[in-house]
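Deviation from plan, reported transparently: 2-(butylsulfanyl)adenosine complex.
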Amino acid sequence: MDINQRMNELIEKINLYNESYYQNNESIISDQAFDQLLAELIQLELKNPLFARSDSPTQKVGGTITKEFKSVTHQFPMLSLGNTYSETDLRDFDERVKKGLEGESFEYVCELKFDGVALSFWYTNGVLQKGVTRGDGSRGDDITANVKTIKSLPIRVNSTLLPASYEIRGEGYMPITSFDRINAAKVAKGDQPLANPRNAASGTFKMQDSAEVARREMECFIYSYLGNENPFNSHSEALEHLRSVGFSVSQTYRVCASIDDVITYISDWAEKRNDLPLNTDGIVIKVNDFGQQERLGFTAKSPRWAISFKYPSEIARTKIVSIAYQVGRTGNVTPVANLSPVYLAGTVIKRASIHNANEMERLDLREGDTVFIEKGGEIIPKITGVDISARKQGEVFVFPTHCPSCATELIRQEGEANHYCPNDSGCPPQIKGKLEHFIARKALNIENLGTETVDVLFEKGIVSNVADLYDLSAEKFLGLDGFQAKSIQNILFSIEKSKGIPFRQVLFGLGIRHVGATIAEKLVLHYHSLDNLISATLDELIAIPEIGERIALSVLEYFSKPQNLEIIERLKSSGVQFSEEISEIVLETTALEGKSFVISGVFNHFDRDELKAKIIANGGKVVSSISAKLDYLVAGENMGPAKLEKANSLSIPIISEDEFLALLS
Ligand code: IVH
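Because the crystal trials were delayed, the predicted structure below was used instead.
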């Protein structure tokens, strides 16, 4: 037998033993004999690196050293979930879903919210190609060598249903047993113990030495299937199939017929979750049907078809040292309590947010008070109550009447909880905040200009508003410490590049109060150019769906200020984009009205996007999965057999490209 053959044989054998051990809980070989086979394979791979396969089970023991993780762009952005903390919030979510689905019946799937790190696994032809961290949601780090050490993650998948390429997502975690074992060893050696299993997991997955990662015995629970082709009708169907082909899907999920069932699930798991091998901090509720998920869609940050519920968190008790008032980019003034340091849910807390003056009044905080703090969804914990029994006679904290930064008198609009400083063009933290917002990725995406550089340019008086950025030149950096010619060139290059950023991002970047990325997009969709938007009236603005009076007034106020118009004029003459032709679909015909289509395969006249556009332009709807309600499956060449079989079993009409064109006339 030649070497390559022996290596393949070893791989098959080891995979078989692993499968029976991890999937069937059955040991069909002694540990010693298993280790021998593995050792033989490791030796052969070392001696014959050309024959070493990327799907080899030796990857599970690590050994790869990664100097620097490559950054990769996610094929589908990794979003986060909206949080809820009460039954009322959940019922509101349920109402939104019902409304979005126009009364149609639907199911939820409830899962535990695992407390680790989000990971994405890319498979091609059944082989794990990449493991990627969430990163900023658009780009993450390629940590393939490290994820391959997860014993329950299949490196090779055998499925007749899954397409050629797809993505699986899940939560990577450090089991509590590993955490305790590692910490016991650290303490024995006199080292600092790991703070909590979540931090430990994110640190471990970013280690350079995958052999060390393997020793830490990391794990992962799978919770999503994603792909351009989706052979499943529902999330639960996907989970079951993924489990059947070897992925680790927690047994704890449940399909729920109503929000009442969801609430029962939450209370069923409130205590039981503490018996699991990992920490959980809540549950995730997802609409089960993929077609319905697609119809509900996404906001800029998270899906409308899913939400998380957080169990009440741990509470700590400590003393207030002082209250500081922070001024944000839009002028909002937020009180923040400096606390005497206290340990809470794995971290030492020194500061807590009090949100606004209403909250200060509600708590009736006094100097020297002892308070209760809790970690909610936010990073900064909040003060939730005062321990009155420990109160001494301290002065009441009073919200300032003037800006702590620029001394301008603060404004509190009727009905609003926040005080804000109206001096938006002269108040330093606001100017800095606006500059930082403007250069952010979702705004003008000026990559090489970090927040620190912006702060320096502001402190030195070189830049005092966003238009000044476009007047920067190499000479203006003369005399500033720490700027090499190359980095100055990079900064100027990315400023130049930002002139191509679409108007919707520019509008978001202007930082108008209450105009987030989604609202900016809505406004651009409606008005197309800044000139149109500037001449909009209150009535026109509030006639746009999702634009309420609060947003409309803020837009009008922004454009009523001459200094804002002046900045916009300067940005315009620098070449920044202030118009964009994104349009609401104007129908060519209504021939396909009310009809739904699934597209599969390769076509002669159109590419898939063109075909999709054609369907929409004629009043039809494109969905991703085949259900009994589907009207047509448009089949091209090389269509997946699973889709075909499913459409046939549900008697869905399968039409060719030409038959589709005939429908239009
Ligand atoms: S589904 C669009 N399911 O929670 C997001 N996420 O804020 C879809 N997480 O970073 C995520 N357990 O890593 C989903 N059963 C579960 C989860 C889960 C934990 C994490 C996930 C993400 C965060 C969402």
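The two ends are 65 Å apart (CA to CA). We consider this an acceptable substitute for the interim report.
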